[in-house]
Each structure stands twice: as structure tokens, then as C-alpha cells.
Amino acid sequence: MSLTRYEQEVSINFNAAEDTADLYTANPVWIRRMDKLVAANPEQFEVTGTGKVNGEIVSKTYTFPKRFVYVRGKDIIRKLTDEQRQEAAERLRKIWNKNKDKKTEEAGESAEGKALEEFGELEEETETEET
Q1: Contact call for residues 21 and 13 (beta carbons, < 8 A)
Q2: Burial label, 31 (beta-carbon count in 10 A; 0-12, 13-18, 19+)
Q3: Could you identify which of 26, 62, 80, 103 might form a hypothetical disulfide with 84, taking C-beta atoms 3.0 to 4.6 angstroms apart as the criterion?
Q4: Residue 85 phi, psi dihedral angles, 5° rounding
Q5: Which run of H or E residues covers position 12?
Q6: CA-only gyration radius of the chain, Å
Q7: How far is residue 5 CA from its own chain's centroid?
Q8: Closest by Cα among 3, 21, 4 to 12
Q9: CA distance readout (Å), 34 to 21, 48, 65, 72, 103
Q10: Which residues, at least 6 apart from 46, have a Cβ–Cβ distance to it below 8 Å?
């Protein structure tokens, strides 16, 4: 059962007497985000509750240090020149390609290896046809 967009809320609660904050969320994006923080920093982030409907997890509650709660005073707007924008795009493209290659290798078939295999198969077919 999936919740409506309206029901996919996020609520942060803390008080002056304690050093921790609680975050309740029924939003799948926030659940994934917080689960990553728990996995990366188990000493600071903890899952303290899970809500289920028909056996499916629909919400989670997390506890973490309240010093991590921050509200920005205004939007940060970056003004980039065309050259800076191109440099940033190139950096992101390199990172994206690096991550793409890493995922391909983890799957057991690098792009280069796959191409070499196909090339090898073509050579074998050519040799077979010549004989």
C-alpha cells in the first residue's frame, strides 16, 4: 500500500532539555536518505521505530544529535560564467562516467571487455567462414 503524496510527511521534533532530535517520515525519499545516514554513521543515527501497513514499511522514526538540524536563512544562488558552467559540467560528466564504469565492472562485464568479446566473436566467425 502506498501513501498519498499528502500523507508522505516529514516531521522533526526536539526540545531544549535533550541533545537529540527525532525525525519521523512516511516519505520514501527521506526514508532512503536517512537509511543511508544510518548505514554510514551508526554511532550518530539510529532507527528507533518502523511503521508497517499490511507488512509493508511505510514510515520510520530516526534519532540523531539535534546539532545536525539546520535551517538556512535564504536560498543560495550561484552565478556562474559560461566557462565555469562548462568546467562544472565536464567535472560532473567525468564523475558520472567513472561511476557508470564502476557499476558495469561490478556487474562483471566492463564496457571494454564486452567490446573485446564481441570483436573476438567476429574474428572467430570470419576465420570459420574463410575455411
Answers
A1: yes
A2: buried
A3: 80
A4: -65, -40
A5: strand 10-13
A6: 25
A7: 20
A8: 21
A9: 13, 12, 13, 20, 23
A10: 38, 62, 63, 64
8-41 residue pLDDT tens: 999 999 999 999 999 999 999 999 999 999 999 9
Question: What's the grid cell of residue 98?
Answer: 567513472
DSSP assignment of 101-119 equals HHHHHHTT--HHHHHHHHH
Phi first, then psi: what are they for 46, rounded to 5°? -145, 140
| 3-state DSSP assignment of residue 98 | helix
Written as nine digits, the cell of 83 is 566557462
Nine cell digits for residue 14: 526536539
pTM recorded for the entire structure: 0.60
The span from the CA of 35 to the CA of 16, in Å, is: 26
